[in-house]
Amino acid sequence: MNHNRRMNDDFDMYEDFFDPTQNDRQARRARKHKGVKHVPKKSEHDIRAELAPIGGTEGGFQTTYQPSRYEEGWLMKSLGDFYRMEYITDVLGQVRGGKEASVYRCAARPGMDAELLAAKVYRPRQFRQLRNDKMYREGRQILTSDGKAAKETDHRLMRAVGKKTAFGAQVSHTSWLMYEYTTLQRLYNIGAAVPKPYAASTNAILMGYVGDAGRAASTLSEVSLEVDEAHELLEEVLRNVELMLSHGMIHGDLSSYNILYWEGAITLIDFPQVTDSHNNSQAYGILKRDIERVCSYFANQGAERDPAPIMRRLWKRYVEQDAQQRAADLSRLAPEEA
């Protein structure tokens, strides 16, 4: 636990220097006035000195991709476990960057079932400061770093999360990350169109890569489809939405921005906000939003579908009827009244 806390402290220091929003005036202004005083314990020179060995020959992990000066420490600390576990041998390039996470194309170890892998490296502060995280957390247990649910009798942990202390923020970050990883595992195993999950570390997930050595898959938001193809892909996206719902899961943030397109096929990505369809009071609205966003994109591509009947059918079949069945099952198991 102390190791994880030190790593998150380091990530905060790296993020003070390496920030993809640093050219965004509004983002800079928000950071400047957020009211939190940060007193660094180490100088910029000391931080750079600590980062250098990690990416150099002493660490044994040298990359083809040349990160910026401050990105290097953040990247190497996040991906070092995958290198030491012999999943990857190199980081070849950045696929995409954002406020929540950056994705990197990595060379897989020879002998694995893929030549290229994708490493999603999270930005810790983004998860710690999600404004609407309560909406998605409802009905979800807190997951530990091994992907298992934390004990509700661990009052220190539960109290820290509730009060949003530094330790609680760390726990929440780990839980968000592990929800994405365990969701990928579940979905991949039931045949959903998602990347294959390989491993998770303190601050990153290693998964299947979509694309080739020269170019990563585009998101649907970047693609114009022929009408026939749009109809086919809409049905495939809705198949995945239904498959998730049949296992009690709602993506929570589904849109054309987190559906990849490569050689005529789609892949769903980004699952930290996955929602429990049975135990979240806002599940109906979250699913409705997912379906409406998907239908809106495909309507612009010539494949129009009314989201309302889709929503009604899925909700009735996989939530209402399932709830009724579970209630009936519980009633049969209940002891007879004297």
Task: Give keywords.
alpha+beta, 338 residues, globular, five-stranded antiparallel sheet, Phosphorylase Kinase, domain 1, 11 helices, 2 domains, three-stranded antiparallel sheet, single chain, Transferase(Phosphotransferase), domain 1
How would you concisely characterize the structure shown here?
The chain has 338 residues and is an alpha+beta fold. The chain has helices at residues 2-17, 25-32, 44-55, 71-84, 124-128, 133-137, 155-163, 166-189, 227-246, 283-300, 307-333; strands spanning 88-96, 101-108, 116-122, 197-200, 204-208, 218-219, 249-250, 259-262, 265-268, 275-276. The longest helix has 27 residues, at 307-333.
Itemize the secondary structure elements and their pairings.
Elements: H1 2-17, H2 25-32, H3 44-55, H4 71-84, E1 88-96, E2 101-108, E3 116-122, H5 124-128, H6 133-137, H7 155-163, H8 166-189, E4 197-200, E5 204-208, E6 218-219, H9 227-246, E7 249-250, E8 259-262, E9 265-268, E10 275-276, H10 283-300, H11 307-333
Antiparallel strand pairs: 1-2, 2-3, 3-5, 4-5, 6-8, 7-10, 8-9
Helix pairs in contact: 1-4, 3-4, 7-8, 9-10, 10-11
